[in-house]
Amino acid sequence: MIDFFTWTTPNGRKVSILLEELGIDYEVHGVNLGDGEQKSPEFLALSPNGKIPAIRDRQTGQTVMESGAIMLWLAEKEGRFLGAPDDRGNVLEWLMWQMSAQGPTLGRIHQFVRYGKSIGEPAETLFRAEGARIYAVLNDRLKSRDYVAGSGRGVYTIADMAIWPWVSRYAWPETDLHDYPEVLKWYRRLAERPAVQRGYQIPHFVNDIPVP
Ligand SMILES: N[C@@H](CCC(=O)N[C@@H](CS)C(=O)NCC(=O)O)C(=O)O
After folding, report:
1. For 33-65, how does the pLDDT look when each residue is reduced to its tens digit (9 = 90+)?
2. Which residue's CA is the closest to the ligand 1 atom numbered 11?
3. DSSP letter, residue 38
4. How many Å apart are CA 85 and CA 24, to the nearest integer?
5. Would you say the CB of residue 37 lies under 6 angstroms from ligand 1?
6. What is the mean pLDDT of residues 70-94?
7. What domain range includes position 191?
8. Is the C-beta atom of 38 inside 6 A of ligand 1?
């Protein structure tokens, strides 16, 4: 049994989608970010960085924070969604691309576009350009393939599950997915998966998956 500490954000949904795809038992614990619960001593004891998501393995007591680490830990434990052994480097590079480039860049754009926390016009221009570049990289990657990693047309892995929830927030940085047709096709393909639909609504319903 996995205790899963999360909220209604892309980093949380990466893990809930994986948990749903794996079909393993887990119990959801909502950590209300608006109320600052992520900074409570109880939560910091299992996630010292004070951010969701985090998990705890009830059998061993082991805790894991950081969405990428959690995804790798769960996928390795279950032996699923990592592609074939020869695909592993490719899966990891796209997972790390998500963690280091896509998530942080789009997250920063959300702050000033969606929440109005200005970081100054020059920095905002740079971040917008980087956000567009990142979408273009993903669009190029998805040309002639169905999933971001793996040989041939690719295979569905934790790399897709990590990237998709951030794309689902396309409206927040005012991105028109029609500008990235390969991303749009992939986005819609994943949105049809029952596990993605269930995982999107953890820890509770906010809205239906937006589909342009
Ligand atoms: N690198 C971390 C980032 C986690 C993160 O930024 N979580 C956000 C929600 S998506 C959070 O908990 N924010 C609350 C805060 O910063 O106080 C991961 O991938 O798990």
Report:
1. 999 999 999 999 999 999 999 999 999 999 999
2. 51
3. G
4. 23
5. no
6. 97
7. 85-199
8. yes
- CATH for 7: 3.40.30.10
Q: How far apart are CA 20 and CA 199, in angstroms?
A: 6
Among 18, 37, 46, 52, the mutation site with the greatest number of ligand 1 atoms within 8 A of its Cβ is 52
What is the Cα 161 distance to its own chain's centre?
A: 6
Q: Whose CA is nearest to atom 14 of ligand 1?
A: 51
What is the 3-class SS of 102-127, one letter each residue?
Answer: HHHHHHHHHHHHCCCCCCCHHHHHHH
Q: Is 67 in the pocket of ligand 1 (CB under 6 A)?
A: yes
Tally of domains in the chain: 2
Which pLDDT does position 153 carry in this prediction? 96
Query: Do 100 and 172 sit in the same domain of this protein?
Result: yes
Q: Are 65 and 47 within 8 A, CB to CB?
A: yes
Nearest residue (by CA) to ligand 1, atom 17, is: 51
